[in-house]
Write a structure and sequence with these properties.
Rossmann fold; Gfo/Idh/MocA-like_OxRdtase_N; Dehydrogenase; alpha/beta; 347 residues; GFO_IDH_MocA-like_dom; 11 helices; binds nicotinamide-adenine-dinucleotide; seven-stranded mixed beta sheet; Dihydrodipicolinate Reductase, domain 2
Length: 347
Amino acid sequence: MTAPLRIGLIGAGAIGAWHARIVAERRDAVLAAVCDSDAGRASVLASRYGAKPFVDAVDLFADAAPDGVIIASPERVHGEHARLAAEAGVPMLIEKPVAPDPAGVEAIRAVTEAAGVAVMAGHVERFEIGSAALKAAVAQGVCGRVVTVAARRQFVAADTPRFRGLSTTLRILGVHDFDLVSWVHPVPVVEVYAASGRGRVYEETGLDDHVVTTLRFADGAVGLVESAWTLPQPYGVFTSPEGWSPAGNNRLDVFGATGMISNDMSLRGQQLIAFDEAAGFRAAGIRHQPILHGRVTGALAEEDSAFIAMIADGTPPVVGLDDALRAVRLTEAAEASLASGRPVRLD
Ligand SMILES: NC(=O)c1ccc[n+]([C@@H]2O[C@H](COP(=O)([O-])OP(=O)(O)OC[C@H]3O[C@@H](n4cnc5c(N)ncnc54)[C@H](O)[C@@H]3O)[C@@H](O)[C@H]2O)c1
């Protein structure tokens, strides 16, 4: 048996903690190091899994010499962390969005290509079974010529204040679906038009409450991406049952000349719900990080498996920087449209 891969993590926040647990639960990898600019967060997460804590990523690469690194810091510092990984010759998984803008993705591509270091983009929806099965069915021509691709992603705005001034609704939520829609219908987008509804979330955090983006594809098809925090709080804020993550109101529909394909993950299609007198109605999100027999499974664990395979076997990344760039370009165009109130043409 070969020695377990030593994985480093940069960013011990919400998603970093999930990656840490997933890596620690694997047999072929260990969590060797955790870096966070917040020393307390780094040491709490590192000590949970027997990893070494760092507050500076420079020291993580110098002292821990990981075989791979998961970059789950905020996107504004992904470029700096990717550069350090490239200089250390360490393959990396970079959370979405890979960078705040296309120039940032290009810069990451330049340093990693120059160093010959493999990069995977953390677009977790690619590992969601329904999304992947829908993509395969569209590619088989099941709905004929594609006319419309519609994606909705709606959550409770429970944890959004941490993004104030640091990110946007389209970078947090929209980028998932810009990638998904372009993956399902891989035709260039020629026009992007976005409009937002602003309410309580905007007042409290500066994030748009609900953004509706339309995409016009070069072949005449249309895309619709909804990115929203407008679910009522009780739907997604609960502490019982223990271990349940809240569900969103998500769906992905493709309508074509001769048929339709729909992956319904929406309010009325939730698979697992609880309803009791003490806490009312709750729905469990069981797509991305469900716990099965005490271990994290689901799309995020599959994403980390693909990353481990990329390091161990040289398997090409399932999601690469071209995909990341396409999604970030669409995000930037939608943000430009929001700012101007006009459609944005793309070359
Ligand atoms: N795939 C998904 O579904 C998903 C879900 C959540 C977040 N994300 C992405 O992951 C990234 C992190 O998001 P989050 O929600 O975990 O944020 P978070 O704020 O919860 O965590 C970010 C962590 O990074 C640390 N940090 C900030 N600057 C740093 C630096 N220079 N060096 C080291 N650590 C630093 C912060 O102290 C914090 O602990 C974002 O790019 C976000 O878009 C992806």
